C-alpha cells in the first residue's frame, strides 16, 4: 500500500521501486480532461473557461476549489494540500493533461507516467506566464484575449485616475507567527498592479518592491514608516492583520482609513487572474469608494468571476 499523499521522498521511492506501472493512466484519449497543478493555473483555467477535473491545492484552504465547482457547474477534485500529492486519487481520475508550474517536491517523471505533462516555468512576467499557461491548458487564443481585456481595463482605469488626486496606499498582511506584519513586493499581484496604475506607496514599501522576498517582514519599530492615506489590510484563513497589536498605534487605523482585501488574491504571486481581481478591487475602491471583495467563492466573488469569463 502506498501513501495517498506523497512528497519528493515518497515519489522517488516509488520511481526506484518501479511501482508506477499499477498507477498508470489509460491512453490520453481515455483521459478525463484537465488537472491543474497549482492555484494560479487553476484560476487561469477557470478564467479561460477550461473545465477542470481536479487541481492540486498547494495552499491549504484555498477557496478556489469551491469557486471552480460553482462556476463550471461540475465538481473538481482536490488532489493535494500543503505541497503533497494524492497519487492514488490522481491515478484513479485518469486525466488527459496535467498543466501548471512545477509541483514542489514531486519529480516530473512521476507525473509523466500518469498523463500528458505540460509544465511552465514561472517568470514573474504576468503576460508571458499567462500566455504560456494558457497554451498549456489548451486555451492559447483565450489567454491572448484575456490579457488584452486586462490591459484595456488597466489603461482605462489609469486614465481615469490620472485626473484625480490619488491617496497613497499601504498594503499590510500577517506573517508567520504572532505579531509579525508583512507587506507585498513587486512579485505579487498587488505590487505589480499598484505600480502599473502609478499608485504611490510609502517609501519603505517602495524600497522593498524589487527585493528578493515576496512578503518582506516589518519590524515593530519601523511600522510607522508604512502608514499612508489608506491602509489595505489583507484577510485570509487565519484572520486579518487588523487584529495585530502592532497596528493599534497606526494613525490610519485610528482615523478609520482602513479597508480589508482578500489575501489569497492580493498576496498571490503575480498572475493574470489575481491581477484582474486586484484591478477590479482598486477600481471600486478608488473610483466609487466601495470595499474590496472578500472571498473568491462569495456571491460577489462568483459574480465577478463569471463577468471575467464573459468578457
From TrEMBL:
Coiled-coil regions listed in the entry: none
Family matches, as SUPFAM superfamilies: Helical backbone' metal receptor
Keyword tRNA processing: no
Main location (coarse class): other
InterPro entries (alphabetical): ABC_transptr_periplasmic_BD, Bact_iron-sidero_bind
Keywords recorded for this protein, A-Z: Signal, Transport
Region forming the signal peptide: 1-25
Segments forming domain Fe/B12 periplasmic-binding: 33-290
Name the record gives this protein: ABC transporter substrate-binding protein
Pfam families registered for this protein in UniProt: Peripla_BP_2
Family: Belongs to the bacterial solute-binding protein 8 family.
Organism the protein comes from: Saccharopolyspora gregorii
Subcellular location: Cell envelope
Matches recorded under PANTHER family: FERRIC ENTEROBACTIN-BINDING PERIPLASMIC PROTEIN FEPB (PTHR30532:SF24), IRON III DICITRATE-BINDING PERIPLASMIC PROTEIN (PTHR30532)
